[in-house]
Each structure stands twice: as C-alpha cells, then as structure tokens.
Amino acid sequence: MKLSKRGEYALRALINLGIAAEVGRSLVQISELADHERMPVKFLEQIMKDLKAAGYVASERGKFGGYRLALPGARIPIGEVVRLLDGPLAPIGCVSQSAYQKCSCPDEAHCGLRMIMLDVRNAIAGILDRYSVADLVSVTLRKMRASGVVHPFAESPTPLPGASRHYRPRPPATVNRTPTEGILSSLIPEYTI
C-alpha cells in the first residue's frame, strides 16, 4: 500500500479542519486549507467533494462559507478515509477483504507470498483502523503547544488555547483503541471510557 497524494491531502485537510474546530473556527475556506498545506486548490476541491459525499465534511456556500468536519473527529477512522480515496489496503489482490482478485498462483491456499502479504495487509489495517482524525488532531496540537507554535487557523495570533491542558478525545465505544506500539502510542494519552 502506498498512500497517494489524494489520500495524503485528504488526511491533511481533515486534520486541519479538526484543528480549526479546536481553536474556535467553525468554517475554513478551501483556499486557506490549500495555502496552509501547499496543495493545488482545484485538486483539493475534488478531494473535498469526495469527503463531503462520504459524510466526513460539510460545507457552507457564500462569501463567508467554507468547510468543517461533519462528524466528530473520533468517528472518522483513518483507515476508512484511506480506503475511500486510495482503495483497498492490501498490497496484492488475493489478500484484499474488499476487492479480492484471484492471483496467478496455482495453489493460493499454500502460497508463502500470499501468507506474508496477508500479514502486511493486517498490520496496515490494524494501525490505520486504530486511529481517528481526533487522535491525529490531538497529537498535532500537543506538539504545536509544546513548541509554542500558533496555528494559522486561530482567529488571532495568540498561543493555542489550553496550552497547559491535555486534550483527551473520547473514542466511540465500538472502536478497539489499544495503541501499544508505534509513534502514536507514545503520544496519545490513555483513554477513559
């Protein structure tokens, strides 16, 4: 699996919309998102249409319109966004759960390559499905606060609100959240349910 520019830009836009909401911005214009992340506006517009159709973002038209998250960030799993924009997570078709394709191997049941690619798919899905947009927003804001960085979506050039507080998103009860490995596990605080 390789994250495409389309998938990368979508995730970066969702994270920025989550951060904007955290710092008090109800809407962010697409030109602001594109400028902040150095993305082509036309390409980002296409991506935002897909995210809107999937129910992840909402928009308001007009001079003061823009985009916002349509769902709480905790209800937007990273894996779902990647699948939406980039397709299946499986490196080869014969291990895909959503887009299975028979491979050229004469004995799929005993194929060593298939077995290792199944492990790869499961590892990727396990990580991407474990984290949500809220998790990435939390990590990003915590790092920005620790560095004293002012987010460009803040209404005024003051430090980010809550610099001394720890943001603890409440995950939905249906998502298994047990980060024990990887960089995010060391950055995301323990959850309370």
Quickly give the structural class: mainly alpha
CATH homologous superfamily placement of the domain at 5-75 and 132-165:
Winged helix-like DNA-binding domain superfamily/Winged helix DNA-binding domain
Shape: elongated
| Number of distinct beta strands | 2
Question: What is the CA-atom radius of gyration, in angstroms?
Answer: 19 Å
Q: In whole angstroms, how far apart are the ends?
A: 33 Å
The major sheet is characterized as: 2 strands, antiparallel
Give the mean pLDDT: 81
Strand content: under 5%
The low-confidence runs, each spanning 5 or more residues with pLDDT under 50, are: 157-177
Overall helicity: 40-55%
Compressed to H and E, one letter per element, the order equals HHHEEHHHH
* Fold-level CATH name of the domain at 5-75 and 132-165: Arc Repressor Mutant, subunit A
Named CATH architecture of the domain at 5-75 and 132-165: Orthogonal Bundle
- CATH C-level class of the domain at 5-75 and 132-165 is Mainly Alpha
What is the helix tally? 7
Order of strands in the sheet with the most strands? 1-2
Task: Show the helix and strand layout.
Blueprint: H1 5-22, H2 30-37, H3 41-53, E1 57-60, E2 66-69, H4 78-86, H5 112-130, H6 133-147, H7 182-187
Antiparallel strand pairs: 1-2
Helix pairs in contact: 1-3, 1-4, 1-6, 4-5
Provide the descriptors you would attach to this structure in a database record:
single chain; mainly alpha; Arc Repressor Mutant, subunit A; two-stranded antiparallel sheet; 4% strand; elongated
